[in-house]
Amino acid sequence: MTTPLLTKTYLDVRQALLAKAEIALIDVREEDPFAQAHPLFASNMAAGRIELEAWSRIPRRDTAIVLLDNGEGLAAPAARTLQALGYTDVALLEGGLQGWIDAGGEIFKDVNVPSKAFGELVEAQRHTPSLSAEEVKALIDQQADVVVLDARRFDEYQTMSIPSGISVPGAELVLRAQALAPNPSTRIIVNCAGRTRSIIGTQSLVNAGIPNPVSALRNGTIGWKLAGQTLDHGAARQGRTTEKTSTDAARQARAVADRAGVQRARASDLARFDADTARTTYRLDVRTAEEFATGHLPGFRNAPGGQLVQETDVTAPVRGARIVLADTDGVRANMTASWLAQMAWDVWVLDGTQHADWSATGPAADPLPAPQGPIAHTDPAQLSAWLQAGPDGTTAVLDLTTSVNYVKRHIPGAWYVSRAGLVSALANIPAAHRYVLTCGSSLLARYAADLARLTGAEVWVLQGGTAAWIAAGLPLEEGETRLASPRTDRYRRPYEGTDSPREAMQGYLDWEFGLVEQLGRDGTHGFRVI
Prior knowledge:
Elements: E1 6-8, H1 10-18, E2 24-27, H2 31-36, E3 43-44, H3 50-57, E4 65-68, H4 75-84, E5 90-93, H5 96-102, H6 113-126, E6 130-131, H7 133-141, E7 146-150, H8 154-159, E8 166-167, H9 173-180, E9 187-191, H10 196-208, E10 214-217, H11 220-226, H12 243-260, E11 263-265, H13 267-275, E12 281-285, H14 289-294, E13 301-302, H15 305-310, H16 312-315, E14 322-326, H17 332-342, E15 346-350, E16 377-378, H18 380-388, E17 395-399, H19 403-408, E18 415-416, H20 422-426, E19 434-438, H21 451-455, E20 458-462, H22 465-471, H23 502-513, H24 515-522
Parallel strand pairs: 1-5, 2-3, 2-4, 4-5, 6-10, 7-8, 7-9, 9-10, 11-15, 12-13, 12-14, 14-15, 16-20, 17-18, 17-19, 19-20
């Protein structure tokens, strides 16, 4: 007999947040419905991806986890999946999202809301300096002594950027700004796509006390486009640093971290944290992915500092957890930690490491559970032969990758299927004698192999996934050719891409302007701006 699932109320969750107790409030819907409405500290972990994400994002198996959906019936099966993965304190939010609303809980739109709301609070309290798109363009056109630093990820910068802008992702700003603007009279402009990263980046430079005048580009590339100005595409300018500026930056960053109340850790503290089984500890290396791959501390995961501050809900869904940050320069970890401390995290910076300690190389592997039951694998050559032989309906390929990747390229004839929506998707697919499951690498596809129980048909997993099919030089198809599930797995940000409607961009800015008021109504954030 199946044990009934426990429930927790809105008040239970609120009390834990106010007490700064560890809790993971997990919304198991796909990203788009999640982005339409969710509690402030809810983290999105789509039900179909739990096996891939849970162990790395919620590392302690007795963490208090509360799951919610909005009546789609996803939360209860997700809870059973988490229990099967070894989690022992799993509950459903009573009434789901609607129960939260009925109890008086505040609801937020969009993604990465804790960080975006915090950024608005920083600007409201510190009056972070900013210039309009028209003012910045005038400075550039006049060839004034100005440098534009783009605080987003490099791939976002390459998609579209301010003319003359240089890519310096968030946590790199204090490290690199003075090498890029060595004359203290040079004006530094910091931009992102909207507001948050430019506010945090600008305020980072102000907090660090660099001598240059610093301003955010008000409303980022959105503001630039709304002003009718032209963006660059495909730029590749990147920041640099020097030994002198690195030394100055380390001193400045440490002072900011100390002022924010960041705690200091040594190797002995890491051992003590490991022995503390009642707390979750995230160990994060805040340098670039390239530096991390070259050499990192064993047991640490990569989370470049600017994106970590922007995406705390993704990287650390256990609110109330302990976070330990590391770098090799004494700048990026301290600056990142200074912001996390202000966001009410229990944050530490690791000191005292030696060069030899950074011995691990390559990307950190995600801990993954073994799929249940035996799996039959096939290879691209056999799948190609099956697709070419026999009448239609003999073999159906189900692609469980993201919808963005599916539209970009997929095996000819493959159906796009959401893992969590697999049962309903089968109603949209002609019955087949044989099903072959794939995704980019077939990692996720392995966990859907119980399809045989649902269909009574042969079920195979493509070894190596669609990547192996591509490597074999086999033909590909693109576009929304066969969507058996709706494309709700990805929320289209109003600021991404080059074709966002003006109404969507302005609506996004209006939403951001209202976040401080929403924080006040919610009352659980604990943010403290220095």
